[in-house]
Amino acid sequence: MDFNDTPEEAAFRKEVRAWLDANATRKSDDKQSFRARNDDPNLLAKAKEWQARKAAAGYARITWPKEYGGRGGSPILQVIYQQEESNYLVPLGFFDIGLGMCIPTMMAYASPEHLQRYVKPALHGEEVWCQLFSEPAAGSDVAGIRTRAERDGDGWVINGQKVWTSGAHYCDYGIIITRTDPSVPKHQGLTMFFLSMKSPGVEVRPIKQMSGGANFNEVFFTDVRVPDAQRLGKVGEGWKAALTTLMNERLAVGLPAGGLDVDELMELARDTELDDGPAIRNQQVRGKIADWYVQQQGLKLTRYRTLTALSKGQTPGPESSIIKIVAAPKMQDMGAFAMELMGQGGIMREEVPHAAGFQAQWIAGAGFRIAGGTDEILRNIVAERVLGLPSDVRVDKDVPFNKLK
Amino acid sequence: MNFDFSDDQKLLKEQVRKFLTDKCPTKVVRRVLDGEETHADDVWKGLIELGVTGTGIPEEYGGLGLSPLELCVVAEEIGRAAAPVPFDTSVVLATEALKLAGSETQKKKWLPRLAAGEAIGTLATAEGPQPPKPRSIRATFGGGRLNGRKLPVADGEAATFAIVLANTGGSGDRAVSLVLVDLAQASVERTRVETIDPARKHAELKFDGATAELLGGEGEGWRLLERLYDAAAVYFAFAQVGGAEAAMWMARDYALQRQAFGRPIGSYQALKHKLADCYVKLELARSNAYYGAMMLTDGGADLPLAAAAARIAATEAYDFASKENIQTHGGIGFTWEADTQFHYRRARVMALSLGGPMAWKDKLVSRLEQKNAA
After folding, report:
1. ipTM of the prediction
2. Which residues make Cβ contacts (< 8 Å) with residue A184, sequence separation at least 6?
C-alpha cells in the first residue's frame, strides 16, 4: 500500500506542475482575504482567460479524445491535473457543468456537424453551457417536469419554466429536458434538446441566494423555437439522455474538498478562552474535533480508494457515494460550531481570521446539502444501488402524466 | 496510488472467510454463548491449521513472517464471523506485545508456541470497573513475584500465559511495568466472570506471589501499552469493520424479507436511510482502517494518529450497525433465539477493550496537536 504515483503518473504530475508554475500563482496563505477573493466582479472574464490557456496547452479535458481537444488520457491523469491545479490561485467552476455534463451528453447524441461547431468553443471557454433540468414542481423528482415542447413544422416550440439553473445568466447554450407527450407515464414522454440561451423568448432571472450571491436562476421559455436538428436522442427518450448527463456528474471524483477544515478549527480552539481555559483543552471541544478529523480523513482516504481503482484501470466501487452525504452536513455543523466557539461575536461578518470562512461554510453547507442530490435522495441511492433495497413506492409510475393530480 | 490490498491478500481473506462461513456459522457462536466451553476449540484448531496464529510471527520464531496487512484481512474475517476464539487476545495483543517488548529468550520461548497454537496468550490490565491508569494499578511485581488481581481478563481461563500491567514502584507513568506470567502454577487462581458477552469468556485472575518476569524495561509498562494499543487498534478496527458489515447485511436481508403494511419494510425510507447511514459509517471506518494498516507496514510515522482515527471510526460503525440491526428486526431481534445479539455484544466488548471512544478522541486530538506543533 502506498500513495505513490506510477512512473507515468509521476511524469505527468511533473509536467503539469511545471506548466502551472509558469502560468499561474501558487496559493499563498491568505485566508483573511476570503471575502475579497470571492467577490471579484471580473471572475468570469478571468475564468474564460484561464480556460483558454488551459485548453491551448491541452489540459482542459484530459480524458476527451484528441479530436475534441483532449488527450485521450485516463481518468487518473485528469484527477492529477485537478489536484495540482487546486494548489494555485486560478478561477474555476464556470465550466464544470458544461464540460462535465452538457458536452458529454452532446457527444453521445449530437450530429458530427454540431460537435464540430460547439465542442471547441466550450473547451476553450469561449462559450459557456448550462443544464436546464430542475423546475419549480420537479426537484428531486426531475422526471416530473412540465416544460412542454410541441411539434411545429420542422421544429419545436418550447413553453415553460426552469429553476436553479446554475450560471444561466452568463451562459451561451444549454441542454434542456422537455415534455413532448403528456399522455404517457412521466418517464416516457420526455425529449432533450440543446438551444441558444440568446434565443427569442428565453428570459433569465437571477435568484438571490441565502448566501447573498446569485449563482443560479429562473429561466422562462415563451414560444421558444428550436430546430428538430437540435434534438438530443429520440423523441420520448429524453430520460435516457438525462441519465447520460447525470452519470457524467458522478464521475467528478477526486476534487479537493476545499474550504476550512479541522486545522483551522484547532487554531480557533487554541485562540479561544472558555471558562476553564483554552477551548482546545475542553473535552467536549476535543470530542468534536476528533469526530470531524475522522470524517475529514475518511473522506480523503475514501477518495484514494476510488483513485486506486482508476489508477489500475478498474471501475471504482460504490464507496464514493458517501462523500457528499458526509461532507455537506460536516461543512454546516463545523461552521456552526466554530461560530459558537467565538460566542456572540461569532455572528459578526468581520474579517477576523477564519470567522468569515466558517460563516460562509455554515451558509453554503445548507445549500450543499440540497444541490446535486439532497441528503435524502443520496441515502435512497445508497440504499437502492449499494444495498439493493427496494425503490420507493411510485404511485405515478404507470399513470399517464396528464392524469396525475 | 495503490491504496488497496494485493490480490494475494484478498485471496487469503477469501480463504479465511470460506473457512469461517463453513466452520463458524452463527450456531457455533450460540453454542459458546449458551455453553460452558471457554472458546470454540474446533474453530480455533482449524484456524491454527490455516496458519492464522503464525501470520505475523517472523519465520525465525516459527511463524509465517507475513506483513501486518495479512493479519488485517484475517482480523476482518474473524470480526465478520464474531468468531468465539482467542484471536484478539492471543494473535493480536499477546503476540504483538512479545514482538514489541520481548527479550530474545522470551521471544524464543513463546512465539513458536503461539505460532503453532500450543500456547494462548492474553493481556490483563483492568482491575474492575475503572479505566486502568498508572497510579491506580494495585497489582504489584517485585523480586520475581506477582501479587494482586485482574478482571475482566479475556480468555483468562484458556490462556497459557498473561501479560499483566503491574506496579513496580516507580512514580508517575513509570509506576507500572508489563509482566509476563505463566498461568500454569498453583499461585494463580482463575475464576470465570460473567460479562455482557458470554460468547467471549472472561475471567478474574488472582496472583498470590506467582513467579513472573518483566516484559520490557521496568517502569516502561505504560509507554509500551500505548504502543501496543496503537497496533492493536488497527487490527481491532478491521475486526470491527468486518462485524459492522455483517450486522449491516443481516439487517438488510431481514428488511427485504419482512413485510409490513403490504410491502417489505426495506422499502420505507426510515429504514433505507438508517441502513444507508450504516454503509456511510462503514466506509469511513474502512478507509481509516486501511490507512492504519498502511502505517503499520511502514513503521509509519503517522501511526499514532491513523490508529486513533481507525479506532474511533470503526467503533462507531460497529456500535451503530449492531444496534440498528436489532432495531430493524423489531421484537424478534430482541429475543435470545435471534442472531442479532452476537454483534451487539461483541461491538461493546471491542469498544471497551482498548479503552473507549472518549479516551481515544482525547488521544487523537493530543496527537494532532503534537503533529501540528512539529
Report:
1. 0.96
2. A236, A400, A401
